[in-house]
Fold this sequence. Notes:
This protein has 342 residues and is of the alpha/beta class. It has helices at 9-27, 41-45, 50-78, 84-111, 116-137, 139-154, 182-189, 200-203, 208-214, 227-242, 267-274, 298-302, 327-338; strands spanning 155-160, 171-175, 194-199, 218-220, 246-249, 279-285, 310-316. Strands 1-7-6-2-5-3-4 form a 7-stranded mixed sheet, with helices on both faces. Helix 1 (9-27) runs antiparallel to helix 3 (50-78), helix 5 (116-137) crosses helix 6 and helix 6 (139-154) crosses helix 7.
Amino acid sequence: AGHKVELGLVPFGSIDLTVFGVDLFFATPAVPPAGGELLGVLAFMSQSGSWRVVLDVVLIGMFGGFFIVPLYALVQQRSEPSHLSRVIAGNNILNAVFMVAAAIIAVIMLDRGLSIPQLLLLMAIFNAAVAVYIFGLVPEFLMRFIVWLLVNVGYRLRTRGLGHIPDEGPAVVVCNHVSFMDAVLVMGALPRPARFVMYYKIFRQPLMNIVFRAARAIPIAGIKEDEALMEDAFAKIDAALAEGEIVGIFPEGGLTTDGEIAKFRKGVERILATRPVPVVPMALCGMWESMWSRRDSALARARLPRRFRAHVELRVGAPVSPEEASAEALEAKVRELRGGDR
């Protein structure tokens, strides 16, 4: 998980709990061995299909860890230190209540004629239904899963300096803009959720729009294109910072066309004039040679990208105080972080 609480692992665990729970139903024999005697390990393993049962049980345990561990870590991360022990105690009580409830449901179902394989199938279906409800209620989990998949499938990402991201409180992060995937990469790397401001045409890209909406990205347009949308974006940025969130912006105002960092625009200064918060400079390196940058022509981008699974790096610098965070100063910081690595 990159030494951070990775919520994207929670849907991954939940989905696989259902998959292997359903498979366990099909793998478990409907009729127990003749005579009803208990079998030893060797006798059980010698039976047809026993390895599939064992594998399903092991995988249910493993993906249960993927589901549970990030949630426990999240509880500890987002609880006030003064109330942490009480939160953990309350969570343990709730877990005990639901375990007892699950045991009572199992007793009732088995008493009404359900077989153990059918009970396993019912539990897997219940798990799927609850997961769908939770991910609808808290889309951040599912969004992190999609981002985690996209980042880990498409790139080999290395990070440096993530400790500069404040553990709590509002902040603005600024970064150079190289490809259509920049916001996804940065969101996947940051230890805290971030709301990114992005050009409205990128925000509306098919399929990726689902991710951006779930991440509560903020679409913006130039004043000559849509002044109302621009003003709405600045209002949403200020509201997000007032709530203690991280807001990410690409001050160049668009993708680089030559791999170099363009002049930073003054939008960040307008944000800080209304809401003075720390600004964290970041630099993406290696993206110019990767897929979805403007290094190639439109015809070349329509083919299979030449640098699939490219090595890319996110470098994070020390926070800059709002008084010192001019567009020129931030541009210099990002250039220094990136160096000669495009």
